[in-house]
Amino acid sequence: MQKNSDPHAAATGARRSRGVVASLVYVFEQVMPDPFVLSIGLTLVVIILARFFGPHGDLPTVLSAWYEGTFKILGFALQMILILATGYAIAAAPVVQRGLRALAAGVQTPGRAALLVFPVVGIAAWLNWGLGLVVGALLSREIARRSRIDFAWLVAGSYSAWSVCNSGLSSSIALSQASHGNALNLVEKATGQVIPLTQTVFAPFVLVPTILVVVVMGVIFVLIHPKDLDVEPYVERGADAPVERDAHSRESAANSFAARAERSILGTLLLLVLGVGYLGMTWSTKGFELDINTTILIFLLVGLALQRTPIAYAEAIRRAAAQTGPMLLQYPVYGGIMGIMTGTGLASVIAKAFVAIATPATLAVWSFLSSLIITLLIPSAGGHWAVQGPFVLPAALAIHADVARTAMGVAMAENVSNMLQPFWAVPVVAIAGIRIQRVMGYTALTFVVSLVIYLLALWLIP
Questions:
Q1: Cα separation, 166 vs 169, whole angstroms
Q2: What does the alpha-carbon distance between residue 113 and residue 115 come to, in Å, rounded to a whole number?
Q3: Alpha-carbon distance 462 to 452, whole Å?
């Protein structure tokens, strides 16, 4: 969003700089570069740290680790992009869009916006992080079209509500430890046991702070909404306008074989039969399991069913692809960072430094604090767990600490650090259509509040 270069805009900026939250917004706007540029800067920081502190920080190892990490992440990157794209296709379905418009129709004030966005996005994110990202961005845009609400504030609120995703049903750490034979199930590899979701996602020390973050941040966001003169509302762009053309129609040769094939639901039915058949067969023989690939398949099937025809679904995915471009740039760069941290032993140095001073009662807290740092450099939950898990879990077993609590300490810290790490905010702001710097100014406050809530929960709740 471009600012007006007139005296009123300058005065608005001056007024905005007086408040604490507004000052954070101003700082992020002035200091924080584009997320891709930031990822390059983080690469340089990690290289310097690895050279000085990594056990294997010699230049050949750094270069080899960077190269391997850059391309090793590509498979995972495609999985993440497919989750976002298939989630977008669900949220873009006509029936879902009508639902979003109906939800947004009665929202005219910041208070009502927060009361709607935080629970809706929080629940969606708890169910699946990809769905939460898309629903949050699209719901924010629908609300902003109908009311004079600061758009950066609204998008930041939806992203703050989304932050609980790593404590929900799509948590990579919780799911992997609950899945027999999962490559990242480090607990099973060490003990032969799996950790059910009742001990992680549904445990009071995880569930209570998850709910508190949504409720408390919802209240705080109502209080920090900019004053009327400082509000920067949503500005409709041509690319953001609702698509009026019927996705089921063809511009020419409407009765041709190609057009009829595109509009036919037979292709959709075939994929639905294959997908549902596979899930039914697998879950009936091996029990219910939900991993990344299964999540993508479920999203694909739901999206196909809601979009009805192959051409409608294809067009939804094409629109989603425009939002995933920035992620395509960042994933390889962060893969290189991950490779350097792993290959040089830098990540193990960070994790071991915290584990060394831990006791059975405090290991989960120290795992949480070390995860805050590692997440800023490795924002992918699965990749992060592959780096930190091999150090914190053996420590938990050695000193007889709570293994589930230790693992979820890592996951809960990801929720917190994501409010400062722009990696996951990129698709949100791309869909919403706003500069990321203004959004991160608000979510810096979410970082502080959620840090306190999760830390106290790990420490005090049984």
A1: 8
A2: 5
A3: 17
pLDDT tens digits for range 235-282: 876 544 444 444 444 554 567 888 888 888 898 999 999 999 999 999
Question: Any idea which residue has 């079209």 for tokens?
Answer: 145
Q: Are 351 and 374 in contact (CB under 8 A)?
A: yes
Helix, coil or strand: residue 248: coil
- Extents of the domains making up the chain: 33-238+257-460
Query: What is the Cα 41 distance to its own chain's centre?
Result: 21
CA distance 309 to 316: 11
Instruction: Please tell me the distance from the alpha carbon of residue 114 to that of residue 219, in angstroms, as a whole number.
Output: 8
Read off the DSSP letter of residue 3.
P
Residue with tokens 């949503």: 234
Mean pLDDT (whole number) for 322-341? 82
Establish how many alpha carbons lie within 13 A of residue 175's alpha carbon, considering only the half-sphere containing its beta carbon. Answer: 22
Nearest alpha carbon to residue 161 among 452, 393, 418: 418
CA geometry: angle at 128 spanning 125 and 133, to 5°? Answer: 50
For residues 300 and 68, give the distance between their C-alpha atoms in angstroms, rounded to a whole number: 30
Tell me: pLDDT of 102 over 50: yes
pLDDT single digits (tens) 199-233:
999 999 999 999 999 999 999 999 999 988 788 88
Contact 417, 376 (CB under 8 A): yes
d(CA 217, CA 376): 21
In this predicted structure, what is the pLDDT of residue 13? 44
Residue type (1 letter), 29? E
**Amino acid at site 290:** L
346-355 and 310-343 are packed helices; what angle lies between their axes, rounded to 10 degrees?
A: 70
Q: How far, in Å, are 329, 359, 411, 427 from residue 423 at the CA level? A: 11, 33, 16, 8
